[in-house]
Amino acid sequence: MKGGIILASTIRDVAARAGLSVGTVSKYINGKTVKENTRLAIEEAIKELDFHPNNIAKGLRNAKSFSVAILLPMLDSTFCTSMISSIESTLLPLGYSVIVCECHNNAEMELRKTQYLIDRMVDGIVLIPYASDGKQIEMIQKSNIPLILLDQEIQDHATDCIVLDNELAGYESTQRLIDLGHKDIAIITGSPNHYTSNGRLNGYKKAMTNAGLTITDDYIQCGDYCIDGGYEAMMRLCKLQKRPTAIFISNYDMTIGAYLAINYLRLKIPDDISVIGFDNFPLANVVNPPLSFAEQPTNVMGTEAGKLLYRRICGDYSDYPKTIMHKPTMHYKESIRQLT
């Protein structure tokens, strides 16, 4: 205490309490391996002194931890987990370990996990955002940690982004169904305030409007980008007095849920309803008839995120902020049919 003010503990305090050198404590805090008895002594001193590594993060920022983080909304999302492998396979050969953090679709948890990663002094973060207000971006940027935004852009928060042309994916899928003679076309979409949801829904609406077709509110159903949500949305559509003849399901997990509902109701694809799903994951290859789908290049996007993050870690900001937008690849198979 000095002048009535309680001063935060420092790394020197921890070293003195543990009976070790500052260099040894610094080595441990930076994630390096130390002897077991040394680790126990340091952790006991940290606990007794209520020491927080972020108190010295600024002083240690020049030292690399050789760890990067992926912060994502949920691990049970097929899209999110598909990104982890390609990011990791890009950065592991470069000497970086990868920490994966899940915020469980919770904005407050996302901020807590962001602070945790800042305290861990990771060298870089790949963020698949949940909240759209940009608070997590501000925290990371204030800490001068390189950041790559994956899957969406956050308005008024300039940073590197790797995204899909979501509007084109929604437009192309809907237009194909229109070309086949369908007029009563539904969409299962994600949360209305989500970047990708808005893009894919806007593409659907644009195709319907350009074709002079009526956009029916009941044909726009939210499935929350999850299997259960896709199931419930499909059940709601099938209970309508006038069931749609075709549907575009705007993500993979909702496509699984919608298929479960279709099977439960004993409907036939495409005889009873034509279906276009999303992403080239196992479902597209095992269902009968084969599924039509809009594909985003998840492996390419993950690899690009890893490479761009490494460039930023190395200090190359020559093209900052950089946005890479990918076009979807459309695959039309036997799950859709021509109306006579």
Automatic annotation (TrEMBL):
It comes from Mediterraneibacter faecis. This is Substrate-binding domain-containing protein. Pfam families: LacI (PF00356), Peripla_BP_1 (PF00532). Keywords: DNA-binding, Repressor, Transcription, Transcription regulation. Coiled coil: none annotated. The lineage of its organism: Bacteria, Bacillati, Bacillota, Clostridia, Lachnospirales. The keyword Lyase does not apply. Residues 9-62 form the HTH lacI-type domain. GO terms for molecular function: DNA-binding transcription factor activity; transcription cis-regulatory region binding.
